[in-house]
Amino acid sequence: MSSQPDAHAHHHHHDHDHSELSETELRVRALETILTEKGYVDPAALDVLIETYETKVGPRNGARVVAKAWSDPAYRERLLKDATAAIAELGYSGRQGEHIVAVENTPATHNMVVCTLCSCYPWSVLGLPPVWYKSAPYRSRTVKEPRAVLADFGVTLPGDTAIRVWDSTAEIRYLVVPMRPEGTDGFAEDRLADLVTRDSMIGTGLARSPAETA
Q1: Residues 162, 167, 172, 178: is their CA dihedral positive or negative?
Q2: Residue 175: φ, ψ to 5°
Q3: Among all residues, which ones are annotated catalytic?
Q4: Sheet containing 162-167: which strands, arranged edge to edge?
Q5: What is the pLDDT of residue 162?
Q6: What angle do CA 168, 171, 173 make, to 5 degrees?
Q7: For 6-10+19-213, which CATH superfamily applies?
Q8: What is the pLDDT of residues 10-59, one digit of tens each?
Q9: Which residues contact 77 (CB under 8 A, 6 or more apart)?
Q10: Terminal C-alpha separation, the chain
């Protein structure tokens, strides 16, 4: 099977600034600077808070979605058919998550998500987008050389695994359902969720093996 990327570009208007920082982000930065200068905000504490939402709180929502899809075939079917509704069943919805499409990794196909124009991202299930997701190199290279980008993240796939690159827009955002690790038969959903990483739901990583969380 071909390993050439299958980019799904959507020519919709994004509701974001197409520069490195959106208008909202620029306003947040300006507000942060003012509050810091007045002594109302501790930059170190703010960094910890942002890191928590980037890597823990937000992605935990998506991890629970994936874990349920792994353990409940009927839910998996609903998720792949209408991800927005299926995700809302678990109480995760809101701005930046109005229309989500779930794409499933298989031994034959690996999915990756990018926003080539700015940084559209499913906040309701993944939290805040990581800095690298918004960077120009990631946005441009993922479409052109996805295998090289995966290698940068430490992921090497078999040569016959096809890579599909999905381009998020203001109208459509994507959630990758990574492959369920081997040796997890009988795992409860909470234990399965511990194996799901933020990067595996973007497609730049794989789910952890049970040994990695032991």
Answers
A1: positive
A2: -125, 120
A3: 115, 118-120
A4: 6-8, 162-167, 109-114
A5: 98
A6: 35
A7: Nitrile hydratase alpha /Thiocyanate hydrolase gamma (3.90.330.10)
A8: 444 344 433 445 566 677 677 777 777 877 777 777 676 666 666 556 68
A9: none
A10: 35
Which residues fall within 8 angstroms of residue 128, CB to CB, at 6 or more apart?
A: 50, 53, 54, 58
With the C-alpha atoms ordered 159, 116, 149, 156, is the resulting torsion angle positive or negative?
negative
Residue given tokens 């918004």 in the structure block: 134
Cross-strand bridge partners of residue 103: 176
| Domain definitions of the chain by residue range | 6-10+19-213
Q: 3-class SS at 76?
A: helix
Please state the rounded mean pLDDT for residues 164-188. Answer: 95
Angle made by CA atoms 119, 9, 13, in degrees to the nearest 5: 60
The rounded distance, in Å, linking the Cα atoms of 212 and 214 is 6
**Quick one: DSSP state of residue 109?**
E
pTM as predicted? 0.76
User: Cβ of 55: how many Cβ atoms within 10 Å?
Assistant: 16
Q: Is the dihedral of CA 195, 200, 204, 209 positive or negative?
A: positive
- Between 94 and 177, name the one with better pLDDT: 177
Instruction: Give the span between the Cα atoms of 156 and 159, in whole angstroms.
Output: 9
Cα 113 to Cα 169: distance, rounded to the nearest angstrom: 11
